[in-house]
Write a structure and sequence with these properties.
Elements (H helix, E strand, L loop, with lengths): L41 H9 L6 E2 L1 H12 L3 E8 L3 H4 L13 E6 L10 H14 L6 E4 L8 H12 L3 E5 L6 H11 L21 E4 L5 E4 L2 E2 L11 H7 L8 E5 L3 E5 L4 E6 L3 E7 L5 E5 H11 L18 E8 L4 E5 L3 E6 L3 E8 L4 E5 L3
Parallel strand pairs: 1-8, 2-3, 2-5, 3-4, 5-7
Antiparallel strand pairs: 6-7, 9-12, 10-11, 10-13, 11-17, 12-16, 14-17, 15-16, 15-18
Length: 372
């Protein structure tokens, strides 16, 4: 480990270097807190005094440094993904850094899916997706950290697969990882004086918190990795509320002909370029404004009404919003989802179609067989 600079202050809770400039970055604490005899970062403070974990985000490089260290240790890795944004919340290349440790894959936010969706079908789909991406989890489980659905069962699976070893909870930002850990802390009655211990992963200067377990092992909370291809990183908190689902999704069904377009607020759009009359089913936040129009009018409509009729983004931020980039897709025969990372998806149900998608530069779009 590199020698610390003399002016550095180290968090007594997790070992990270304290900083007072950026609340969103690891190690933040208010400047006045530096006057205390024992200095801890705001994240450790929230955990110690309120049994509450706050999520922070790391760059990909920093996150994989954490993973590399986990691969050198023995324990259970719990990888949490957002079911509603599986592609956007997946961490690429994780299978190369597990060191042979078992991985329990947990799909969070199951409460957002329509009740008609069979949980077994979602689990089967997640297993296939994980395998296709090089990961073979020991098990796949669904839960809702927010509502508490199946959180107890998730805890039981963790205990089953960890075999008395440490547990490392990982995930990208906004998947609900910290909500899950907070729920565990509340449900199992953790005491304040047992909350904070110094991270014993050698050489790390990253904000990793460990929560003691009954048998002397620990559950480690790792900072979330930020996936830059998610649309959420282009929005402020108020705008995010409009496009982030908080309750069961009510799909919106459109019967479209060639030459029609659906806008998702001002965040993106899909054009029906070619194909027979067919249904387009939108699975996005219930509060997100959807607008159907003729494709020939779409460009001008976007230019004139971005930030007003087509929002988010808000009118104040519309001029800062990046231009939309288009891509054309040939949809295979059968039911397929056109997935907009961090936003949701559109199920195209018909005899094949050519569609054109528009999203801000860097936001990922993909096609998959329909999961419903």
């Amino acid at each position: 480990m590199e020698r610390e600079r003399e002016d550095e202050v180290i968090c007594a809770g997790c070992g990270i270097t304290i900083q007072t400039e950026d609340k969103e970055k690891p190690g933040y604490t208010p400047a006045q807190a530096l006057q205390r005899d024992v200095v801890i970062c705001q994240r450790c403070f929230r955990l110690k005094h309120y049994n509450e974990v706050q999520d922070v985000s790391l760059t990909d490089d920093d996150f994989f440094k954490v993973l590399q260290q986990l691969g050198e240790r023995k324990g259970l890795i719990v990888k949490i993904v957002d079911i509603f944004d599986f592609d956007g919340s997946w961490i690429d290349g994780i299978h190369r850094h597990t060191g042979g440790n078992p991985v329990l894959l947990v799909g969070n936010k199951v409460d957002l899916l329509p009740k008609s969706v069979k949980r077994s079908k979602v689990i089967h789909w997640m297993k296939k997706e994980a395998k296709d991406r090089g990961l073979k989890p020991v098990d796949v489980h669904l839960m809702s950290a927010s509502s508490g659905e199946s959180v107890q069962e998730t805890a039981e699976k963790i205990d089953q697969y960890r075999n008395g070893k440490d547990v490392y909870v990982i995930g990208s930002t906004n998947v609900g990882k910290s909500t899950f850990i907070n729920r565990l802390l509340a449900d199992f009655g953790a005491e304040n004086d047992m909350m904070i211990t110094t991270s014993n992963i050698p050489g790390t200067t990253l904000d990793m918190i460990d929560v003691p377990l009954d048998d002397g092992s620990s559950l480690f909370d790792t900072p979330g990795v930020m996936n830059s291809h998610q649309i959420v990183h282009l929005l402020d908190q108020k705008e995010m509320k409009k496009m982030t689902p908080v309750k069961e999704i009510k799909p919106t069904v459109y019967q479209l002909n060639e030459g029609q377009t659906i806008f998702f607020g001002g965040l993106g759009r899909i054009d029906f370029v070619q194909g027979e009359h067919q249904s387009f089913i939108v699975y996005m936040a219930n509060d997100l404004y959807l607008h159907r129009t003729k494709t020939e009018k779409a460009d001008e409509l976007y230019k004139q009404h971005l930030g007003t009729t087509l929002a988010p983004p808000s009118e104040n931020n519309a001029h800062l919003f990046p231009d939309l980039e288009k891509k054309e897709w040939k949809i295979p025969e059968g039911k397929h989802d056109v997935v907009f990372s961090g936003l949701g998806w559109v199920t195209v149900d018909g005899k094949g179609a050519v569609v054109r998608t528009y999203v801000p530069k860097g936001v990922q779009v993909s096609i998959r067989p329909s999961i419903f």
